[in-house]
Amino acid sequence: MEQVVDTSSGSVAIETPGVSWGAVLAGAAAACALTLLLLSLGMGLGFAVVSPWGDRGASSTSFEIGTGLYFIVMAMISSGLGGYLAGRLRRKSVGLETVEVQFRDTAHGFLAWAVASIVGAVLLASPASSLLGSATGGAVQAAASASQFSPMSNYADMLLRSDNRPDQQSLADTRGEITRLLTTSLRPNSDLSGTDRDFLVKTVAARTGLSQADAEKRVNDILTQAKSDLDKARKAAMHTAIWLTLSLFIGAFAAAAAAWEGGGVRDGTWGRVNVRETLARSR
User: Fold this and answer.
1) 260 and 87 in contact (C-beta within 8 Å)?
2) How many structural domains are present in the chain?
3) Taking a C-beta distance cutoff of 8 angstroms, is the pair 52, 44 a contact?
4) Which pLDDT does position 259 carry in this prediction?
5) Backbone phi, then psi, for 12, in 5-degree steps?
6) For residue 19, is it within any domain?
7) For residue 84, which of 76, 72, 95, 96 has the smallest C-alpha distance?
8) Phi, psi of 4 (to 5 degrees)
9) What average pLDDT score do residues 26-49 get?
10) Is the full-model pTM beyond 0.85?
11) Which range has the worst mean pLDDT, 1-5, 157-161, 209-213?
12) Among 73, 181, 189, 255, which residue carries the largest CB count within 10 Å?
């Protein structure tokens, strides 16, 4: 973009950048800071509404919907502030049509949202994890210990549950074999083959003292529960990804719209003309 400046020796064209990166970075920094603030507030509200007791606190469905809506509100507020600052602080354009000025304002808001999203994904992940870890306390140590085992270890424990427990070393070996069997079988095939199922039933019957029929029933029940839990985890991850994607889209729109307003306030034109009049004047 060229700006023409009148001097004593005549008119001089000065090349100016089309993007004010200082304004973009300022808006992105403000958006990241506000996102961290709202994220810590959201975690506090989340811990306030959940409860380990079945008859207290919000249900899992209500908590999931509430979390998704909070993501959207958080994106609107933080992105709106970042976009407004980017549009308000960017260098004023001279000699451009109104539509072009508004486009550059909204582009600065979108760039501020993009930078904030990228930086936030890299830098805010660690503070968010620290805040969550401080709030949960001993849950971090439990998670670290649990990470040494497969997710199927719990189901192996349930399969080998018995009042007459054998020696721990032999039981540990059996648990490891069953865990590996469940992990390798349920991933690709979503079920156990006939040979693996027969082996599992015989092992459970031998280790727990159950009859063949009771052992087979326990195996079927535990496998059904494992599939149900895995399916719930899959759906929860899917819903979270959808909510996050929706919040990003809304955040981008909020940043662009707020930057338009910020640019209009900067130029003193906000609220004086409507969109139709602006488009008509530019034609």
Assistant:
1) yes
2) 2
3) no
4) 92
5) -125, 130
6) yes
7) 76
8) -95, 125
9) 88
10) no
11) 1-5
12) 255
